[in-house]
Amino acid sequence: MVNEIDSVLECGSGLSTVFLEVMKRETLLSKSLTLEHSVQWWTHVKSVLAKHQLGDESIALCPLAGNWFDLNPLKPQHKGFYDLILIDSPPSRTSPEGRYPALAKLKDFIRSGTWIILDDFNREHEQNIVQSWLREYPIALIEKVSIDTGLAVMRWI
Predict the structure, then answer these.
(1) Does the reported pTM lie above 0.90?
(2) What is the radius of gyration, based on Cα positions, of the chain?
(3) Whole-angstrom Cα distance, residue 138 to residue 68?
(4) Distance (Å, whole) CA 96 – CA 74
(5) What is the CATH number of domain 2-156?
(6) How far is CA 92 from CA 24, 62, 80, in A?
């Protein structure tokens, strides 16, 4: 999987955002985009990136519109397909099924072969979301990873 990944879109920022920027600096990744809905967290992550002299142009402040990110703030350079989509937001406190719209809302970023990782798969709501996606979209569940809060690793067919 690693050799196939050149671009990453992540929903929700944090340590992974810093890691993605390090990968870009080291030319291990050509493109990333992070969607963040919280102004406070967006500001914090941008300051961490600046502290480590990493770029912050790939983290987009996209407030929630209903239960999903408002994608209107995205810039032209953010458009296009991504090899990997990491879904770790919106938080469950906004809506238990808040991550369900991800595939429908991100369809313009997905192509055949795109990897999709859903975090917090140990939660019942996330398991239900994956079951719905498997029925509704051309994806395959490749692996369930039982670390921390769990991951569902899927691939768009």
Answers:
(1) yes
(2) 15
(3) 21
(4) 25
(5) 3.40.50.150
(6) 30, 17, 28
Q: What angle do CA 27, 31, 37 make, to 5 degrees?
A: 130
> Which of the residues in the chain have pLDDT under 50?
none
Residues whose CB is less than 8 angstroms from the CB of residue 75 and which lie 6 or more positions away in sequence, other chains included: 60
Confidence (pLDDT) at 2 = 54
Whether the Cβ atoms of residue 139 and residue 104 lie closer than 8 Å to each other: no
Of 29, 81, 85, 37, the closest CA to residue 55 belongs to: 29
Q: How would DSSP label each residue in 85-96?
A: EEE--S-TTT-T
Amino acid sitting at position 39: V
Distance (Å, whole) CA 154 – CA 152: 6
CB 72 within 8 A of CB 105: no
How far is the C-alpha of 24 from the C-alpha of 43, rounded, in Å? 20
Domain ranges of the chain: 2-156
CB of 112 closer than 8 Å to CB of 120? no
